[in-house]
Amino acid sequence: MPHITRRGLAAATAVLLGATALTACGSGSGGGEGAGSGPVELTYWAWAPGMDKVAALWNAEHPDIRVTVQKQASGDDLVTKIITAAKAHEGPDLVQAEYQALPTLVSNDALADIAKETRGVEDAFAPGIWQQTTFGGEAVYALPQDSGPMMFYYRADLFRQYGLTVPTTWDEFAATARALKAKAPGKALTTFSANDSGLFAGLAHQAGARWWTFEGDTWKVGIDDPATRKVADFWGGLVAEGAIDNQPMYTPAWNKALNTGEQLAWVSAVWAPGTLTTAAPATKGKWAMAPLPQWTRGASATGSWGGSSTAVTSDSKHKEAAAEFAVWLNTDPKALAALVKESGIYPAATAAQTSGALAKAPDFFTNQPDFYARAAEIAKTTAPAAWGPNVNVAYTSFKDEFGKAAKARTRAAFGTALTSVRNTTVADLRKQGFEVAP
């Protein structure tokens, strides 16, 4: 993504997400950096569980800078609350923000550029993850906190039973789906689901998609670019021919399919073991994980599904102290170990992805002792993601349009759905006052 400045974004933006009134939401910092007697007081809005316990470690070792965690809702609710607070100049000092929310927050002048305070930190993260906090430019709007590199999960026992080979390319994936249907018509390799837009977005990024790009004061929406078209056509084709299922994820029927072996595989992310633990408890120790299939044989790239960052707000009166805490939280070994233990995250910092609590495989994958070692190698290949200021609108449209396409079970319906998502996203950007390229 081209270099994005807050000034350029702010010049194009209007109020997003229907901001609502807030009460008593100020950071309470007051004064300049180091002003007053006593310690600097920082407020951190976060939703991850146990974040207060992690902050307590910092407070015990940094008596001059005290961090208070205020638990928040996640998703669009928090984005709306941050924007509203920023417009009233009553924001906290730090916020936990999902990567796809960062352009929206920057465009509303809610986040500070902490490039100066974070020099030398970039090498702690995979390039594709670091890019999501910088938009490919020189400004740094957050520190990566956790990530969701995507991978391929499959029932190793059933693959052996049906003589299937783990696919390394998407062509092999399609062939595997067809081979399974021929041998066991009542089973499916996987399903196409439209109820979590992040899955499709990650697959599109792996293929090289750039859904939002920015030049000068103009946005370009590439949701229907050739890379994304290729992904939509691939999955639409498999659904149309009946090679895979078309049912949504996270439903009782989906859980049953995983638990009984009706569905043999799942394209997911590093956090999948936790979901499988509750969705398919009878299958513990029967799954295995492999890299995501590639579009070109011999290539090595994965998408990202989920993840968040730690950002310093424009309202903070103590930006240097806040940035110091953000760096510690996301690079210090003790902090990272606590994030894994208390918050259950997969850290974005590469050094923490195979140490401490991640030194051994998840309990659900005790049959694959090198689980996290393999995951760390996959995470290094995370493709850059290009987000824009109305991801929420695009995601909502995706669920509606691709949900209908999945039910229609035609390849053409998937193409039509993609066009609709792009048109809805463009119309919303223009409605909000952004310049959008044709």
Account of the protein in words:
This protein is an alpha/beta fold and 438 residues long. 41% of the residues lie in helices and 14% in strands. It has 16 helices and ten strands. The strands form two sheets. Strands 1, 2, 3, 4, 7, 8 and 9 form a seven-stranded mixed β-sheet that branches.
Can you tag this structure with a few keywords?
disordered N terminus; alpha/beta; seven-stranded mixed β-sheet; globular; 16 helices; three-stranded mixed β-sheet; 438 residues
Averaged pLDDT: 91
Number of β-strand runs? 10
Radius of gyration: 22 Å
What percent strand?
5-15%
Give the CA-based shape.
Answer: globular
Which assembly state applies to the chains in this document?
A: single chain
Topology (SSEs and partners):
Blueprint: H1 6-12, E1 40-46, H2 51-61, E2 65-71, H3 76-87, E3 94-98, H4 102-107, H5 127-134, E4 143-155, H6 156-161, H7 170-183, H8 197-206, E5 212-215, E6 218-221, H9 226-240, H10 252-260, E7 265-269, H11 272-279, E8 287-291, E9 304-312, H12 319-331, H13 333-343, H14 371-379, H15 391-408, H16 411-431, E10 435-436
Parallel strand pairs: 1-2, 1-3, 6-10
Antiparallel strand pairs: 3-9, 4-7, 4-8, 4-9, 5-6
